[in-house]
Amino acid sequence: MQELFLQGNGLEYLPAFATSLAVGLLVGVERERSPAAKAGLRTFGLVAMLGTLLALISERTTSAWVLPAGFIAVAAIIVSAYMDDDESEDPGTTTQAALLLCFGLGTVIWYGFGTLAIMLAITMTILLHYKPELQSMTKSLSRRDLQSMLQFAVLSFIILPILPNRDYGPYDTLNPYQTWWMVVLISGVSLAGYVALRGVGQRYGSPLLGFLGGLVSSTATTLVYARYGKNPALSGLAVVVILIANLVVLIRLCVVSSVVSPAILPHLVPVLASGFVVGATAAFYWWCSMNRMAELPMPEIRNPTEIKTALSFGALYALVLLAAAWLSDIAGSRGLYLLAFVSGLTDVDAISLSSLRLFEQGKLLADQAVMSITIAYLSNLAFKFGLLAFIGGKALARRAAVGMGAVAIGLGIGMLLFG
Q1: Which of 97, 169, 232, 417 has the greatest number of C-beta atoms within 10 Å?
Q2: Residues of 305-320 as b/e, b for ≥16 C-beta within 10 angstroms?
Q3: What are the residue ranges spanned by the domains of the chain?
């Protein structure tokens, strides 16, 4: 479907340019942080797109000299930049690369790729215009942030492509590629929240901290903010952050399900939405009644893309998937629900993804998969309530019980009405 949509006016080549831009920006982010580098984020992005563009021109014109000439031109730009000893002036590599790219865009317009050229020109203009913002963004990244991005790149573009996409083991449930794809999916969602959490800081208050913390790890967020439950000045904010983080898990489950198994959404979304609406009402009540003058510190949450963390989740997912298929075969839905309860105590993602995978394979009915995911979430919610009650004290537990109980009641109503 995507290929058909992109056909015509050269749009079918857009993914190649997007990939080359991503590669250029990835290298450029690292080089932008080096004071000695004469080329940074924008230059690498432009030169990468230039290479793709010249390859396209070379193929269409059957001219072997186009790519070597482009390479020599880029090399000459870099050499001329480093020959300039005046450190107070911009050597102009971005401008020269942009000129070469504009030359290439003009060329492809002649060959009938006008729409593609316009889109690339707009992209180039945005890169050139937002120089201060891009430089500020890259310089604000810590070594730990950059390490997280590189680790995610390893998970996604080095490990994933080399894994076989075949079913192995009992019940044909173990697929190395699909297992690691689940790892990439969960790590990607968590990384987005992790980077955003470190970037926004306290500027937008506790609701956003709860939202981003829920994307990264609702359990870690609950554990971190439960420590402030015994402080009267912070307990109100802490319960709001914890409730929002656990509500975000419901949104996260919907998003992940839409990627893994879109067919289950009509069955799953109404149930999860019921829990979300009722729980959000309770969270909003505490938000309105809390002391707005207090401030919560930023949470220190573990990097979600560490290789060790990814391997642990991948092994857990494979184990839960195999156990779910086995229990479903010998004990029916009761065995699956028991597994959902037990595994959901520590991790809701593994059993949820396993249920979605079995549903896609036709080994689970929709209502069984939805029930399994719901049980896992409720089990996980009960475990986190125990954590905050033990760490944060009775006062925090009483406040959180209203919101968490509301979520559980909402999910129960959803199962009765839509399950």
Answers
A1: 97
A2: bbeebbeebbebbbeb
A3: 2-140, 147-418
